[in-house]
Task: structure prediction
Amino acid sequence: MPTAVSNVPTAVSTVPKATVALADGRALTYFGAIPKRPADFPDRRQLPATGVQSEARWDSLLSEWVVIASHRQDRTFQPAADACPLCPSSAGSLTEIPAPEYEVVVFENRFPTLATTAPPAQSDAACSDDARSDDGRAGQPGLLASRPGAGRCEVICFSQDHSASFAGLNADQAATVVAAWVDRSVELARLPGVEQVYCFENRGAEIGATLSHPHGQIYAYPSITPRTDRMLAACASYRRGTGRSLFDDLLAAEQAAGSRIVLTGSHWTAFVPFAARWPYEVHLYPHRRVPDLAALSPAATAEFCELYPYLLRRFDRLFDAPAPYVSAWHQAPVRHRDGDFALHLELFTVRRAPGKLKYLAGTESGMGAFANDITPEAAASRLRAMRE
Ligand SMILES: [Zn+2]
Result:
């Protein structure tokens, strides 16, 4: 693959972008001015091919797809810091990133859950795309239906600094990450068969992150995910009943109530949702409803880059230790950009007290019915008090 150099027009600025090929053919893209000449740093590793055997199987009882990705059992798990595959390469250590320094980098996951090259799955009742209705929502495939786990999984490194965290990024660094999120969301949405793009971060071993280097992931799904499907249905039902947007009215209701607001800017409001599932859970909504990251205004993007790291630092201060968290961008599915679905971020930690984690036990795992030991109003009050 030739090195492609271009600029990503973002809301904040123009961020340089250069794409190279890794030794096994996967694409890697540098975002930002470093390295200056990516082509000078070819991937010198001998990489054996990884067999990707992803399969999506239909759960008839819950009407949703489950991905079976057995090849991922071999992936790297909590390596020593000097063997981190996400640090820049050096003379003695060749990593996933060939250059000796970088700002933000995105590459295809070597052990993807979903892959465009997934082999056809064996199934008792073959399933094809006609199992989905025209709007991309799940229909009713056969009882034992399966299909290839098609899609794409990418890794995004937020910083070359192994010990950094998103909470510690300055606004310029965060803006480069946002530029990469926007670029990948737009590019992946163009791939054939992609219905939804999801940018997220699993932070901390407690949450299941297998690498401690500051990084997130970007999934391109071949179907709309179960939670998004339910949100779309809720939006449609609310629109039919009231003629209004559910997301607009939810934000207005939280702003009017006030008791669960954590912080407010000119363009964003962060609040603990009324029916929070997790001990500390915050939703971040832009004041002007947009479908996805690419549609954010320059001013909203700039404020996000200040406000979001600040919010993460409050999470870290809750128990005076790095908070294990999941940060999830909800973007409108590819074919629902014109509807009511609104871009928002959902952030939660599984830590409920020093040294104590909330586990998904009987009621949550068995029944999908969440029970939260901390009132959302108390959680919001504590988060408001965590000033720097
Ligand atoms: Zn590292």
